[in-house]
Structure formats: structure tokens, C-alpha cells
Amino acid sequence: MEISLYILTGITSALLTFVLHQKYKISNVKASALPALVVGLGFYFCPEFLRPELMRQIPIVFFGASFAGMASGHIAKHWTIVAFSGAVFAFVYQNSAQFYDGFGGKLGATAFVSIMAAIGAASFLKSKRFRKRNKSE
């Protein structure tokens, strides 16, 4: 249940940031900050909406996944890549939370890894080798 909520949060955040930047031409930083501010304030003013651990982690996942949504349209050529990177971000964040304690740049580094994984997966799925292998089976 928790991981699915984190993944949904990551996908929503990354896509919202991407759409605000690509479609509405809002700068990357503002496209990331505005929705994160709204979510942060919502969780601040409604402190008993979810369990305390989720109340602490969901705004962090939302903010961090918005970094993945800041990817340029030249890099992430389709919204599905951004959505997948948001999901990867949430999964990696959830499973590496204790590993990164004490390190700066955790959210940005995790966002970078997630967008690179999404671009790599998209590139692999488009490759001729993958298509040939699936056609021959």
C-alpha cells in the first residue's frame, strides 16, 4: 500500500511539473516549486490526513519526483518517459531512504538516476534487437 501511494505521488509530481513546463511554458524551477508548495502546505494544514510516516514522506517524494519532471523535452521526448521516471524515483527513494542518510543532494541524485533509467528503458524498447527478438518468439 505504501509503495503504491509513493509511486502514484511520484508519477503525479513528475507529470505535473513536465506539463507545466512544456505546455504552459512555466520555467522549470517554478513548475517544480509551485505544485510542491501546494502539496507541502496541504500536508502542513491537514496533519492528520494520513499516518505520521506518510505525512512526512509524501511531500518529500512529491518534491523529489518533480526534479525528474524538470527534464527537458529534448531529453524526455514523451510524457510516458517522465511518468516512468516518477515511478522509478518513488521506488528508489523508498528502498534507499536509510542508505543516503547524511548525504546532500539525495533527491536530485535519485531524480537523475530515475530519468536516466526511464530514458534507457525507452531506448531499449525502441531498439531493433528488442523488436527482432519479440517478433521471432
Please tell me about this protein's structure.
With 137 residues, the chain is mostly helical. It has one domain (2-136). Helix content is 77%, strand content 0%. It has six helices and no strands. The protein has helices at residues 2-22, 28-45, 52-69, 79-96, 106-126, 128-136. Helix 1 runs parallel beside helix 3 (52-69) and helix 3 crosses helix 4. The protein starts with a helix and ends with a helix. The mean pLDDT is 90.
**End-to-end C-alpha gap:** 35 Å
Domains (count):
1
Residue ranges: pLDDT <50 for 5 or more in a row? none
| Relative strand content | under 5%
The residue fraction in helices comes out at: over 70%
Instruction: Please tell me the overall pLDDT.
Output: 90
Shape: globular
Order of helices and strands: HHHHHH
- Tell me about the biggest sheet? none
**Rg:** 16 Å
User: What is the tally of helical segments?
Assistant: 6
- Tally the beta strands: 0
Query: Structural class, please?
Result: mainly alpha
Which features does this protein show?
77% helix; 6 helices; mainly alpha; 137 residues
Question: How would you summarize this macromolecular structure in one to three sentences?
Answer:
This protein is mainly α and 137 residues long. The chain has helices spanning 2-22, 28-45, 52-69, 79-96, 106-126, 128-136. It has one domain.
